[in-house]
Specification:
76% of the residues lie in helices and 0% in strands. The protein contains nine helices and no strands. The protein has helices at residues 3-12, 19-29, 32-48, 50-78, 83-86, 105-120, 125-141, 147-177, 180-187.
Length: 188
């Protein structure tokens, strides 16, 4: 047994001991606890810069969809079975899932959102990154992923999230820098 499986087995061995903690892990795994801080950040953003926030939420949503699709395709490249399919004694908290393990789409998506939002709204990192870390812990706690699945998912999500946020910022600057006078000159 390798170190990754032993670590996941030890963390999953804690499952079932506290119904409250199992519930918390389940909420993070399903993304429900993401909604509260994320909606708070978006609400503040909308309050401060309504148009930018609306376009950014759309761009972030499209980016997450693309990143999630990429992660789903990579699972079939690696074809790594989930730890919950390999472990002899597995404590179910949220179910095992049928897809392969590498990379973790939960980590791709949560890291994408955290990276994207933090580039555009730097103070949000204090709220979002601890949730990303707890999400990673929860993926091992539920025996859904190995540590390297989480690292690869985090790297993919971070690169795509930061890159998308910088592209969005550049697009937003170009969009807002246009003035009626420069638009008329461009048409002439």
């Amino acid at each position: 047994m390798d170190w990754e499986l032993r670590l996941v087995e030890a963390l999953n061995g804690l499952a079932g001991r506290s119904a409250a903690f199992d519930w918390l892990v389940h909420q993070v795994a399903e993304g429900f606890l993401w909604l509260v801080p994320l909606l708070a950040v978006v609400a503040l953003w909308v309050w401060q810069r309504r148009a930018q926030a609306a376009w950014a939420v759309l761009a972030c949503g499209i980016g997450v969809a693309i990143a999630d699709f990429l992660g789903g395709r990579l699972k079939y490249v690696f074809e790594r079975p989930r730890p919950c399919h390999v472990l002899d004694a597995w404590q179910s908290v949220v179910g095992c899932g049928n897809a392969f393990s590498m990379p973790s789409n939960h980590m791709i998506n949560s890291t994408f959102v955290a990276a994207f939002v933090q580039v555009l709204f730097p103070k949000a990192g204090w709220v979002l990154w601890p949730i990303v870390a707890f999400n990673g812990f929860g993926r091992m706690y539920t025996a859904a992923h190995y540590p390297t699945d989480l690292v690869v998912g985090t790297l993919i999500g971070a690169v795509l999230g930061v890159g998308s946020a910088h592209l969005f910022r550049r697009w937003w600057r170009v969009r807002t820098d246009r003035t009626p006078a420069s638009a008329e000159a461009a048409q002439a």
